[in-house]
Write a structure and sequence with these properties.
The complex is a heterodimer. Chain A is mostly helical. Chain A contains 16 helices and no strands. Chain A has one domain (49-194, 212-368): Ammonium transporter fold (Orthogonal Bundle). In chain B, the strands form 4 sheets. Chain B has a 7-stranded mixed β-sheet. In chain B, strands 2-17-16-20-18-19 form a 6-stranded mixed β-sheet, with no helix packed on it. Chain B has a 4-stranded antiparallel β-sheet with strand order 3-9-8-5, with no helix packed on it. Classes of the chains: A mainly alpha, B alpha/beta.
Chain lengths: 381, 446
């Protein structure tokens, strides 16, 4: 008589089945699954989504490390504190740590729960999203707001569509947009981009203005901007701004990793920068602004968005021709918003979210054109 | 002057265990299987019963839809057993070979008309080697195809080197090509490996349109070649025949005997001494090679081959066996290690690119868990055809006939997109998805 096999603790029918996806996630995190191919090709490439996603996180590390240092630097500059390099870095690290913890704990908890409900394995996409979010919000954002934004974005932008790979918009950007539109006082103005929570509580000091280059240029044009920050300041990243976005060098290092490994499309990066330069140049020539077009690239979140956000393979255009068009429009729109929108000086977030929405349309046009060309070719052949 | 076709995209998978160019033994099989499952679209009706005597070339099975289409025995002997599976599905007819190998005499008249060529193919049981595109099913005898395509080489991992296996059978191949030429008005297209073009015996074949093809796998796939030479439109039909069976057809014409003997490449990382053996289709795997414990035996290559199992039998179309280790071991922090010298990856997220010439002892591990599609251009890089693989795959998943047509379902067989299986970081079974789409097309368009 065949003995009925008792289900394991975490298997279907087991007592702790509700933890199955979570356990599986940790288990496969530590050890590659022992699954063998059942149909199709008998051997498979070593690559999996865990590896792809961890590459993006590695690419983000230079920007994150520099950002932590810069958080301390900006605080010490603003309050006239005499801090050493390590003092600045530790300050930034300690200010950023709670953001990372909240982002990952809230996001992963929802991700694990949703995977369990769908009966799937946990997708690795949140490894990247959870790392991105702290880098694009103000350092001093209240943690409960961050938790709310993360929860909103993971549930309504990702899980309701079916998880990573199915979403239409970039979840990290939606978290930022959620904060921006729900709590504008914590997200805009000239003082939110420099951390002051601990300093002002400890010391009774007066802050000098700590507006971002984008805000200064928006209000006072190029002369006001260059009187405070040089181009090289912005290139190196010694300027106020969200943690990840300030250093062009750190971002380019990340871009190098992404392009080298093939995880992100260089076409989107290049065309986005080209789009920004083009509109910035047209505006300058046409007299709409006196800011040279290359400043548009180094100010604010333009480059960070072009390299890490617009290139998200899930929400970007998927056809190769479509990627050129998509990137170009992201860059162009971002600068258009910066120059012609009086209320909101950072256009990158909205440009990418808008183009995320349009990406399937671009792909549709590219694919339709391809089909028509094919049909013609076959007819003449 | 031949036509040039240089394909840039593709990927050669570096598996260890290529067969050395020597024949180590000639297998005289005891029990031989005739498997109706080798032929797509064939509904078997049994023509023999246990105890019947058959010759090499005697009909064993006929198609229920068209009784002219026969499957014949490759050996002479006695029908030993009829193997059935679930719902009494006919899986195989086992013939106990008598060791004398007596042949049915089909006469040595060279076919002069289309009708004669067709009749010869039908009654000898070689009709099944004609594959119809679209869909990759057995050809219909009442159709006249636009053209017939033969690829004289394979770029699949560790595939048998046709120059070695068939290089001395030029006369047979020429006779086969002549006969096939009668069946179409569009001519017989023969593609030759450009790398060895002038040294290759196949470029000497006459009465064929010769194409010189270069590129990584799947450049040797006949489907990829067709899509560049003459893409298949809706309503059109082309036929293909593996060069191995063209040679068998030629021998049939030249000698009057159905002799399916072939050199079979026994390959793969767990084979002690990979080399060729001479054998008939239907020979038990165990007689072809020693099968180590826990090895997966694949008839064909690692990308599109069929799992035969240690107790299985070599298929009608197969001239390669690949043996792989089942990769059930779990590697600690596999995905997080900077270097994984034992695992190959075509992605630059790993460092396999540092050792381009290295061959790997690949196993059957999936190297990850199944996920939703996250496209990073990897499918396009390995698909040298004028299609968008991801859109075709999604149309197949959605079962959208109109979109499948537009995205090129008529031009592909699963084997042409087999590399997508390999490179996909989301570990989807692309070939199964394409087959599902093709099956739906057959059902809906019939």
């Amino acid at each position: 008589m065949a003995e009925e096999k008792k289900p394991g603790l975490f298997e279907k029918g087991g007592k702790l089945y509700w933890l199955h996806s979570t356990i599986d996630a940790f288990d496969t995190f530590l050890r590659v699954p022992g699954t063998v191919t059942a149909k199709g090709a008998h051997v498979r490439d070593g690559i999996d989504l865990k590896r792809v996603m961890i590459m993006v996180v590695i690419a983000l590390v230079p920007a994150a490390l520099f950002g932590m240092y810069n958080v301390g630097l900006q605080t010490s500059l603003t309050y006239g504190l005499d801090w050493t390099f390590w003092h600045m870095f530790w300050y930034g690290l300690l200010r950023m740590l709670p953001l990372f913890v909240v982002s990952y704990v809230v996001g992963l908890a929802i991700e694990f729960g949703s995977s369990q409900i769908r009966g799937e394995e946990v997708n690795e996409g949140y490894l990247v999203t959870g790392f991105l979010i702290p880098l694009i919000v103000p350092v001093d954002v209240p943690l409960w707001m961050l938790a709310l934004a993360v929860a909103f974005s993971v549930i309504f932008v990702k899980e309701v569509f079916g998880g990573t790979g199915m979403n239409i918009w970039n979840p990290a950007l939606v978290a930022r947009a959620f904060l921006f539109f729900s709590y504008p006082s914590s997200m805009s103005g000239s003082s939110v981009w420099v951390s002051k929570t601990w300093v002002s509580a400890l010391k009774d000091v007066d802050a000098v203005s700590a507006a971002t280059p984008l805000a200064i240029a928006h209000d006072g044009g190029v002369s006001a901007l260059t009187s405070q920050y040089s181009f090289m300041d912005m290139f190196y990243g010694f300027i106020p701004g969200s943690t990840g976005e300030t250093s062009v060098i750190a971002i380019l290092l990340g871009a190098l990793i992404l392009v080298w490994t093939g995880v992100a499309s260089w076409k989107i990066m290049v065309s986005s920068v080209a789009g920004g330069l083009l509109v910035g140049w047209l505006a300058q020539v046409g007299g709409a602004t006196d800011i040279p077009c290359y400043y548009q690239i180094v100010m604010g979140g333009f480059l960070f968005g072009s390299v890490f956000m617009a290139t998200d393979p899930v929400t970007a255009a998927q056809t190769e021709t479509g990627k050129w068009i998509y990137g170009l429009l992201v860059g162009a729109l971002a600068v258009v918003v910066r120059l012609w929108n009086p209320g909101y000086m950072e256009g990158m977030m909205l440009a990418i979210l808008f183009m995320n929405t349009m990406a399937p349309l671009i792909d549709h046009c590219v694919v339709t054109a391809h089909i028509n060309r094919r049909a013609k070719k076959v007819k003449t052949a | 002057m031949s036509n040039q076709l240089d394909l840039k995209k593709g990927l050669d998978i570096p598996v260890k265990g290529a067969a050395a160019q020597k024949v180590v033994k000639t297998v005289k099989p005891g029990l031989v299987a005739v498997k109706p499952t080798d032929f797509k679209g064939f509904l078997p009706r049994l023509l023999v019963k246990e105890g019947d005597r058959v010759l090499a070339g005697s009909p064993v099975l006929a198609d229920k839809q068209d009784s002219r289409i026969l499957v014949t025995s490759p050996v002479s002997g006695t029908v030993a057993q009829v193997v059935r599976g679930e719902k009494r599905k006919l899986l195989a007819v086992l013939v106990q070979a008598d060791g004398k190998q007596e042949y049915v005499d089909f006469g040595s008249k060279v076919p002069a008309t289309a009708g004669e060529a067709r009749d010869l193919l039908l009654k000898s049981g070689l009709w099944g080697s004609l594959i119809q595109r679209p869909y990759g099913v057995m050809a219909s005898p009442d159709l006249r195809p636009k053209a017939i395509f033969i690829s004289s080489f394979s770029t699949a991992p560790l595939a048998a080197d046709t120059e070695f296996t068939l290089g001395d059978r030029l006369a047979d191949i020429q006779a086969g090509v002549n006969a096939l030429g009668l069946l179409t008005d569009g001519g017989v297209h023969l593609s030759v490996n450009k790398a060895v073009f002038s040294g290759s015996p196949f470029h000497k074949v006459e009465k064929a349109i010769v194409h010189s093809v270069s590129g990584k796998h799947p450049a040797g796939n006949v489907g990829v070649q067709i899509s560049h030479i003459a893409p298949i439109q809706k309503g059109e039909t082309v036929w293909t025949m593996p060069i191995l069976l063209v040679a068998a057809l030629g021998r049939l014409i030249n000698t009057g005997k159905l002799d399916l003997t072939r050199k079979v490449a026994v390959t793969g990382p767990v084979v002690a001494d990979p080399a060729y053996v001479t054998a008939l289709p239907g020979t038990p795997v165990k007689e072809l090679t020693e099968v180590p414990q826990d090895a997966r035996v694949i008839g064909g290559d690692v990308l599109s081959g069929e799992t035969l199992g240690a107790e299985g039998y070599l298929g009608f179309f197969q001239d390669q066996l690949t043996l792989l280790h089942e990769g059930t071991e779990r590697e600690w922090f596999g995905w997080a290690k900077p270097f994984r010298p034992k695992v190959h990856s075509s992605s630059w997220c790993y460092f396999s690119w540092l050792t381009p010439g290295k061959k790997y002892e690949m196993d059957t591990n999936l190297h990850g868990g199944p996920r939703a599609f996250v496209e990073t251009k990897c499918f396009e890089d390995v698909t040298p055809m004028d299609i968008f693989p991801i859109y075709l795959i999604k149309a197949c998943l959605a079962g959208d006939i109109e979109k499948m047509e537009k995205f090129g379902i008529y031009e592909v067989l699963p084997e042409d997109l087999a590399l997508c299986d390999y490179v996909d970081p989301s570990k989807n079974d692309i070939q199964a998805i394409i087959q599902q789409g093709i099956d739906l097309m057959i059902k809906e368009m019939a």
